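Annex B, item 7. Sequence and structure tokens for protein A, then protein B.
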Amino acid sequence: MGRALGAEHAEADPLLRPSGNAKFGDFQANAAMGLGKRLGRPPREVAERIVVELDLEGLCEPAEVAGPGFINLRLTGEALERGAAALVGDAQMGIARAHEPQRVVVDYSSPNVAKEMHVGHLRSTIIGDAIVRVQEAVGHEVIRQNHVGDWGTQFGMLVEHLVDIGATGEGAHIADLNAFYQEAKKRFDADADFNGRARERVVALQGGDAETLGLWQKLVDESLLHMDEVYARLGVLLTEGDVRGESSYNDGLGGVIEALEAKGLLEESEGAKVVFPAGFEGQDGEPMPVIVQKGDGGFLYSTTDLAALRYRVSELDVDRIIYVTDARQKQHFAMMLAAGEMAGFVDERVRTDHVTFGMVLGEDGKPFKTRDGGTVRLMSLLEEAEERAGAIVAEKNPGLSEAEMGRVARVVGIGAIKYADLSGDRVKDYVFSWERMLAMEGNTAPYLLNAYVRIRGIFRKAALEGAPEGAVVSVGHEAERALLLKLMELGSVVERVSESLEPHQLCGYLYDLATAFHRFYEHCPVLVAEDAATRDGRLVLCELTGRGLKLVLGLLGIDVLERM
């Protein structure tokens, strides 16, 4: 119990929760509720006994028992001052480094080669990027893996079309990947001669023909250029060096089949080779198979995913693998991982997490589309976000230079898209609304960015970069106390998200922090405080709040602004 009373642990300990009411205390412990039930005694009686035994000197004021057995705890002013001083001297703002750092693979984004990225790739990319940043913040070594779709029978069609349109030269460039793919598909369906040549290309590609592989690589390289443009515009950490596509596991597919066979796991079903992981049944009650090889000898996504799993465990020697995909793939990954465990590709030493998420919907409640019903290109969406944000900023602050206006539009527009995606529980669908995500009030990126801008404005007005050296926080107003307590929660919130993989908790924290700051700003004059010591202490709170906002927004992949 004594350890849990430390403010830096309060959010992480399930027996403690913020009371939500400064009148009653900073935290409320509920240990007596469950303990009373186990002991067969009234919880309030147990709580009163706990209070008698607690040693809170220097940490809390005398504890109080409330209601049926809650224990209200209020930190002393000295404890709060120590907490503020610790944050001032800690660049990590209370985020503890993992005692046993792990090697963590995060598998995310994963677009297909020869197709432009669209809105369907938005959530995996943004959520995965936030998870990577959080894992690194707590001290884990992260291996980013962009498992792009760069292999399969469709590449025979695409390579042959590349040859036919004469785009095989050194300087040739495919300006529109979507149009290129659609043209190839149209010819494949309508032109028997082209269809036959495309099928021959598939055989040549899979057989390792040097010319065909060279043309295939050109398609891959072209696609990576487009992907890199989107990733740069979106401001995520993925680079070309993080790409490890399906093709990279080709040489291991046969070994997967051999390993499954050696374990006696392979069965034949309608000519295909399958594995039946325990616990998976169809609607008819029959066991469901993982198909690993078709009757014609071809492999499937499951085979590639098993090869990737085997590689990550045996070659990369990871401790944790995090897959970030939409919820529709939940069963696929559950069955694939179960088959991997049966085969011995992964064991209890390695933790696997499937981070699922819902769909992006239009305001009509249907999958998000363009006005004419087409797929929304991701780059077009990002460009529109910057345009809309720029219009709002120009109206609000027309005095900004053209360069400043461009930067503000980018940060606000891209930040608004990211925050709208991350602020809701990821497992749920969310409605894409420009009006809501660009609003200056409410739980939005512009609201949070404006809080940071306001803080920087205080320091500009004071002609200071930060709080005066040696300034001490002395909590006298409840708004100061509430803000400092919220700042002291930052580390435990980040640590919790590193386990739960729920970025919306970071967004909830940010909104609470910004709200607490605005209450503080309203009730506690900073630059015109009653005396110099109070002024300097409040400048410390402003500086810490700015640092906290910048740090956690950064974990979401969102930049901050000095002005907007």
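Protein B:
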Amino acid sequence: METNNFDIQEELKKLPGKPGVYLMHDENDHIIYVGKAVSLKNRVRQYFQSSRNKGVKIEQMVTHIRRFEYIVTDSELEALVLECNLIKEHHPKYNTMLMDDKAYPFIKVTANEPYPRVLLARKMLKDKARYFGPFTSSQAVRDTIDLLHKLYHIRSCNRNLPKDTGKERPCLNYHIKQCDAPCQGYISQEEYGKSVNEVIRFLNGNYDGILKELEEKMDAASEALEFEKAIEYRELLNSVKKIAQKQKITDSSGEDRDILAVATEGEDAVVQVFFIRGGRLIGREHFYLRIQKEEPKADILDSFIKQYYAGTPFIPGVLMVQEELEDTKLIEEWLSAKRGGKVDLRVPKKGTKEKLVELAANNAKMVLAKDKERLKREEGRTIGAVKEIEKLIRVPDIYRMEAYDISNTNGFESVGSMVVYERGKPKRNDYRKFKIKGIKGADDYGSMREVLTRRFKHGLKEREESKELGGFTVFPDLILMDGGKGQVNVALEVLDELHLKIPVCGMVKDDHHRTRGLYYQNEEIPIDRSSEAFRLVTRIQDEAHRFAIEYHKQLRGKGQVHSILDDIEGIGPARRKDLMRSFSSLEEIKAASVEELAKIPSMNEKAAESVYKFFHQ
């Protein structure tokens, strides 16, 4: 996304006075700060008010902010937990206090035991227990557990049942009628299980009956002038109400799923996608669509899913949508085949998952109401620009593009960069850096050949070893080379050697080092300088160059780029000098056998094998 088109003062006016999380981005669109707010309008505005005393760190951060975004939640509690998830996911530069799950207690039902217990837990483990939360108030959790013991007589001891049945006398909780003493066999496992099911119903949000019962007991105690009992019921009532603000940002199921919801207005629509990974909401994306007036939401979602998941490399096991789709079974079969595992489309009817779909729908409505025009522009700069490139080079369905560049000063100092764009936006988690291992001097073609060979060989190897798509296993729909015919031919030769068919396009520059066109299939295709395609190609070219230069400077700063031999395990300064004395060039070292390398005085067989493997793996 181009941040120079983001008018901060105009966007501040659109902020809602609702709880949520805000994300600050810098000029490179990196997330540099994540915060929560009771009122997004009030909190975010404070950063841009010169009269406030913000402190040195915040003052410095504000100078780097080029845009912000926000996710609206239903409560401050949800904002708090979402803030924690996003900080862990993105590691923003200016968030110095990284929060930990230990700060938030869970309610744990040990469903894996014959006679389950209800406990406070600080961590969510993979132990087949049921977890509810996390919650921000430890006291409310303790009060609720206490309430559950009183209402359902669930045991609190750590006896191994039924193994230890009858070995000891029942504890005090039995005598004060807060436990039915399964340790004595006074209640069957079946009857005890019914009480546990009631506990789980309560923790899933079925509070109405209990709230009504507590209110009746409180009123009865008050009328009977038993004020201490009335106060006790009132406090328990307040604890239940507090726990009833159950947040939905973290889920004990721990599954990967996408939440999809749509908002419409005339011929405009926004689809909001929430990404749940490992049971945590870690991010979202929204997509602007042009639709027919009064087009059903189910049809919009159906069309969106088919287009979006046709290209995206990762497909979760569950998609949750607002409404039942006509082609549900067909889409499930298609996605399951693409994923290599079962995919379910679900329309949640109650509980946390329904609330999460509702939250996504509310965010979609807000985005559509406030950011429609900006979204149209952004869509043109990204997906629109990709469609223009598709038309120019006559390559359909481009989802992922990879661009490569080489940076060097001399000899051993060459490095390579790979940047990735999906749907016209940078995907920085997939960027890769390469130290050139086997090329001497400023040989850009040779360096590029090495980078591409390593990248795709690695990807093919990972594909053989794993069914999971990720990292190098995801191949691009289009490769962009920072140059014309020469660079394109190098890439095509590498792909041909590896039996891969991927379109390769050169980004040709003029004598002033400005992009002038695309080189594809032995033809230079002119590109309109005022088009979004031109702007996107320029951004990609600049990003590949920036990433390579940045890596080169980083290594030079650490003093690591004086010799590629320094990167070989077991090769220190003495052995490096001996290698350079014994061979006249890096090519000779690379071509040497293990036996020839082992003849060098300071080398042994292990070190010789390390050098050989480094250049031949």
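Comment on protein B: Residues 97-102, 558-562 have pLDDT under 50 and may be disordered.
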